[in-house]
Amino acid sequence: MYVTKPSPAARERIVAGAADMISRRGLNATSIREMAKHARAPLGSTYHYFPEGKQQLATEAVRYTGEWVARRLRKELEAGPVAGLRAFLGLWRKIVVDSDFRAGCPVLAVSIEEPPTDETPAALAAAADVFDAWESLLADSLREHGAEREQAAQLATLVVAAVEGTVAMCRAKRSTQPLDRTAEQLQALVLAAIKG
After folding, report:
1. Contact 122, 172 (CB under 8 A)
2. How many angstroms separate the CA atoms of 40 and 74, rounded?
3. How far apart are CA 24 and CA 176, in angstroms?
4. Closest Cα partner for 35 from 23, 114, 190?
5. How many angstroms from the chain centroid is the CA of residue 133?
6. If you compute the radius of gyration of the chain from its CA atoms, what whole number of angstroms results?
7. Residue pLDDT, tens place only, 41-55
8. What DSSP string describes 31-98?
9. Can you give the three-state secondary structure of 68-85, one letter per residue?
10. The pTM is what?
């Protein structure tokens, strides 16, 4: 009997496909069968990699998105908080525009849906961790460039919250205008914080 070796590429393709599907339809409106189909993966393979089912796959999709964004943010923050902010905004602009305003952020999508039970699902806990990670990256850069500790933390939270909310507004309005307006104001705040 010939057994194939598990492929990390296949697993990552399923996770990336799930993140994309959740970013478009939300978690509750997406079944594991649809996520597998979207990733062009057999349902059996999906359950092989994610034996705990939809919540496990959603958790991995949130973590995948979080790290994907964090890698880009870390790279751009090397040039300072303004460059990092522009990259963060640019990344979400590209997602919204390239999807014809159909996709948003899977981390936000998981965060705003009602959990299926009274317990905190792993995907929701992962979303909180992702938001914390993005805020920490931004706050660290702001502090390194002269912002006071509390101001840096508050501004980092404002940036993440504003961008996440603005992405939702862009989808609803089918326009990047909310992102443009938010970008201008956030950049002014960041510049004031690091020059202050």
Report:
1. no
2. 31
3. 17
4. 23
5. 11
6. 18
7. 888 888 889 999 899
8. -HHHHHHHTT--HHHHHHH-TT-HHHHHHHHHHHHHHHHHHHHHHHHTT-HHHHHHHHHHHHHHHHHH
9. HHHHHHHHHHCCCHHHHH
10. 0.91
